[in-house]
Amino acid sequence: MPTPTARQVQPLIDERPASHPGSLERGIDILLALGAASRPLSLSELCRSTRLPKSTAHRILGVLCSRELARRVGNGYLPGELLESMAGITRARVPGTRRMVLPYLLYLYETTRQTVNLAVPANLEARYVERLYGHNRVSSRSDCLDRAPLHCTATGKALLAFDPGLRQELLARGVFERMTHRTITTLAGLERELAQIRRHGVAYALEEYTEGVACVAAPVFGPDGRICMSLGVSTPATAAPLAKLGISVRGAAQAISAALVGTSRSDHWNAP
């Protein structure tokens, strides 16, 4: 039987270096770009960021969206629900929180008749995990996104003010995206704002994220004494004085914090 020559022998694994990235690498590049963005990215923006042809990026995004690793919002794209859950973003930071918190959220909505938001930090954003609103709610950039930047929203600033690690990570950027003419974009300005929030226990944002929208928020602390969520109310900027609304929001946030601590103690004493 003739011995095969080296030219005739085909290796089981092609060890030649790839000259171009494959679909996996391209998909990872797109996911990294989506994860680093604070707003939905259009197809053109993703192509500029990843240097991929539009046809290739569009095809990969279709696969990512079908697997819930990305999702389309209007003409842009965001990380999908599956990707966020894999990253450890949960509906609440304390077990059993939703059942305990909802009555307070409902009471706050009935008291104010304005949009009520419950937010947790996620990828240097405020992610809204619960929202209550009526038919006449004020429109905001965060509608349909359920997320917003930390530096220009009341819920986000409340999280920043009382979470040193989160604050240090965000403040390391030094400069922040301007969303409206009222947005605080300097490090010194934001630090002064956060100091006021820690002093008074209430955060405000007047048309800093969306024109015509004002927000009030207060921190919610878990059984360990650290902030776990922020409770906020969004209202038209021309509505009643925000200071009065802040009293209601801070009272509801304090009641939730006390309930979380009380439940923790009860679970401790009832444990076998």
TrEMBL record:
PROSITE patterns recorded: HTH_ICLR, ICLR_ED
Domain IclR-ED: 81-262
Pfam families: HTH_IclR (PF09339), IclR_C (PF01614)
Domain of life: Bacteria
Protein name as it appears in the record: IclR family transcriptional regulator
Residues annotated as domain HTH iclR-type: 21-81
SUPFAM superfamilies: GAF domain-like, Winged helix' DNA-binding domain
Database matches in InterPro entries: GAF-like_dom_sf, HTH_MetabolicPath_Reg, Tscrpt_reg_IclR_C, Tscrpt_reg_IclR_N, WH-like_DNA-bd_sf, WH_DNA-bd_sf
Species, as recorded: Nonomuraea purpurea
Keyword annotations: DNA-binding, Transcription, Transcription regulation
Keyword Lipoprotein appears in the UniProt entry: no
